Amino acid sequence: MRDKTVTSSEELHKRRGAAVSRGVSSMLASYVEHASGGTLTDVDGREWIDFGSGIAVTSIGNSAPRVVEAVKAQVERFTHTCFMVAPYESYVAVCEQLNSLTPGDHDKRSALFNSGAEAVENAVKIARHTTGRQAVVAFDHAYHGRTNLTMALTAKSMPYKHRFGPFAGEIYRVPMSYPLRDGGLTGAAAAARSLDLIEKQIGAENVAAVLIEPIQGEGGFVVPAPGFLPALSAWASANGALLIADEIQTGFCRTGDWFASEHESVVPDLVTTAKGIAGGLPLAGVTGRTDIMDAIHPGGLGGTYGGNPIACAAALASIETMRELDLCSAARRLETVMRPRLNELATRHAFIGDVRGRGAMIAIELVEPETDGPGGPTPNASATQAVAKACHASGLLVLTCGTYGNVLRFLPPLVMPDDTLNRGLDILTEALASTTS
Ligand code: PLZ
Q1: Which residues pair with 366 in a beta bridge?
Q2: Which residue has its alpha carbon closest to ligand 1 atom 19?
């Protein structure tokens, strides 16, 4: 199984330094040899419990058996024809699945792409084309990708945008509902604040789309106060703008439902998906109302690899796995293990300022104790880094996120067994105990 030319992580790290751009960084300096439904093993034989799932991708586990089978079978039939040249069934089948699984039972159509950023770009293209308007509203703390348009939509400068401008135009940013940091505004009040800015500074009739992650991912697992998303949705439909839900990180059972918009019964006009959709193969989609999606002229959407047959085969196998193993319930069950333990840790450590998230998308926000002010408690990025490092040294892979770099996020594969999950939480408990704020 192991490649005989592989020596050690140390060796590989040296080779990497001489071959790979410094602009691409990695959290671990260890090189993966294999991975499964909850652990990663490096070339030196060290093992990590995986609380990252490759950033919310391998929800059904790494090398999940059905995906391996489906990919093997597809590779042997054909690897690529380009759907725009010679179409094939699996692309159609993935679109059928997306149309039936995304929120709302209205008539829908989908188009497939390679990455999350590409899906977001296309959703914006579609929204502008259909509405004949240009302005796109994005939120504080948002993350939508690293391409030129999606950098403009992403909030955080370092590392995503720093010296990479100029950025695409007609992007406007308004405040997010962030209960820990907005004085606990209700969802309705936070929405009124944002909508007032939109109406005064952009003008309702100029807005093509309001683009939002129903729970923010890279921005810090920010869960808006109840009522925020429904108010935005109502405003968009009353004003001829489209609501685009970026469900790239939240989708496919991660939050305990197929899509996070469902928790507040929000039915977006367009939904972007990627990550968890295909068990680790690159695939993304835009799904939306038929009248919107079919307003685009033939040939207006596409790309060489979008909806590649191997990725589509993997997606169909992943979706089947999610259905058969009922991974939406699994995500909710993981929450029932994680949340009480995290809440208990928060009572013990004053620097845990918040425990939040939904399903198997949970985070803790680390703060300076007793610093609560109008903008919320002072973020504690150094303790966050220290805890993450201590976890990594003890065999738990955790990711950080947040505008202030002070959020530890937990995204275990939805198939992670309870004992592995609890062992991971034990390591986190020790790491927190060994960290002084
Ligand atoms: N929208 C909500 O979470 C990707 C990016 C990590 P791509 N998030 C992980 C990094 O540092 O690059 C993401 C997301 C949401 C869009 C994207 C973009 O998806 O597949 O990375 O392009």
Answers
A1: 352
A2: 116
Q: What is the atom index within ligand 1 of the atom nearest the CA of 247?
A: 2
Query: Tokens 């296309």, residue?
Result: 122
Distance CA 302, CA 298 (A): 10
Q: What is the mean pLDDT of the chain?
A: 97
Q: Quick check: 436 pLDDT over 80?
A: no
CATH 3.40.640.10 in the chain, residue ranges? 66-325
Q: How far is ligand 1, taken at its centre, from the CA of residue 339, in Å?
A: 25
What is the pTM (predicted TM-score) of this model? 0.98
Q: Which CATH number fits the domain 9-51+327-436, given the four candidates 3.90.1150.10, 3.40.50.300, 3.30.390.50, 3.90.550.10?
A: 3.90.1150.10
Tell me which CATH code domain 66-325 carries: 3.40.640.10
Beta carbon of 153 within 6 Å of any ligand 1 atom: no
Residue nearest to atom 3 of ligand 1 (CA): 249
Q: 135-150: per-residue pLDDT in tens?
A: 999 999 999 999 999 9
Give the pLDDT band of residue 7 (cuts 50, 70, 90): confident
Q: Which amino acid is at 30?
A: S
**Numbered ranges of CATH 3.90.1150.10 in the chain:** 9-51+327-436
Centre of ligand 1 to C-alpha 116, Å, is 6
C-beta separation of 362 from 287 below 8 A:
no
Cα 150 to middle of ligand 1, angstroms: 10
Residue 6 has pLDDT above 80, yes or no: no
Question: For residues 181 and 373, what is the distance between their CA atoms, to the nearest angstrom?
Answer: 9
Interior CA angle at 214 toward 210 and 219, to 5°?
95
Atom of ligand 1 nearest to the CA of 115: 20
- pLDDT for 309 equals 98
Q: 121 CB under 6 A from ligand 1?
A: no
